[in-house]
């Protein structure tokens, strides 16, 4: 379930992934997430690359890896979705930009520790937003 209050704080409540069961995640969009969201919208919206270049970038090669991104066909709530993931990690922090192509949904998970699994968190949020139980 996704809720937004008057201040713009969004909460994803009770994700179904076991490692986050019963957790409440509160996110307020800051400068970094806003920039990543803008980048994602421009990239996948066709404003950064020619359509041929974007298609080549999203063509999976060895081990589902494209040009700088991982491309998957994930089943979420009984539906198949093309998903794109770009993880990053350095000196105790990590993040992931997780994009579902068909409904144009982008999840950005940032962590100030390298002990959190932001990939699993992004997938759990995606499942919650898309209504997977």
Can you offer a commentary on this structure?
- With 133 residues, the protein is α+β, with helices and mostly antiparallel strands.
- It has helices at residues 31-44, 51-57, 118-129, and strands spanning 2-4, 10-13, 24-27, 70-76, 79-90, 93-100, 105-111.
- The protein has one domain.
- It is built from 3 helices and 7 strands, in the order βββααββββα.
- The strands form 2 sheets. A 4-stranded antiparallel β-sheet has the order 4-5-6-7, with helices on both faces. The chain has a 3-stranded antiparallel β-sheet with strand order 1-2-3, covered by helices on one side.
- A hairpin with a 2-residue loop joins strand 5 and strand 6.
- The longest helix has 14 residues, at 31-44.
- The relative contact order is 0.17.
Please give the domain count.
1
Number of strands: 7
Described by strand count, sense and barrel closure, the largest sheet is: 4 strands, antiparallel
Give the N-terminus to C-terminus distance in angstroms.
Answer: 11 Å
User: What is the overall pLDDT average?
Assistant: 79
Q: What proportion strand?
A: 25-35%
Q: Helical region count?
A: 3
- Principal-axis shape equals globular
With strands numbered from the N-terminus, the spatial order across the biggest sheet is: 4-5-6-7
Q: How much helix, percentage-wise, in residues? A: 10-25%
Uncertain spans: 6-24
Determine Rg (CA atoms, Å): 15 Å
Q: SSE order in H/E notation?
A: EEEHHEEEEH
Report the structural category: alpha+beta
């Amino acid at each position: 379930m996704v809720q937004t209050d008057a201040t713009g704080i969004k909460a994803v409540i009770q994700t179904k992934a076991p490692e986050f069961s019963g957790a409440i995640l509160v996110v307020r969009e800051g400068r970094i997430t806003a920039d990543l969201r803008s980048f994602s919208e421009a990239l996948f919206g066709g404003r950064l690359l020619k359509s041929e270049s974007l298609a080549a970038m999203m063509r999976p090669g060895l081990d589902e890896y494209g040009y700088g991104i991982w491309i998957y066909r994930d089943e979420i709530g009984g539906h198949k979705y093309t998903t794109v993931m770009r993880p990053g990690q350095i000196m105790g922090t990590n993040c992931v930009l997780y994009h579902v192509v068909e409904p144009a949904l982008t999840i950005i998970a940032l962590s100030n520790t390298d002990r959190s699994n932001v990939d699993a968190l992004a997938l759990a949020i995606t499942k919650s937003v898309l209504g997977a139980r």
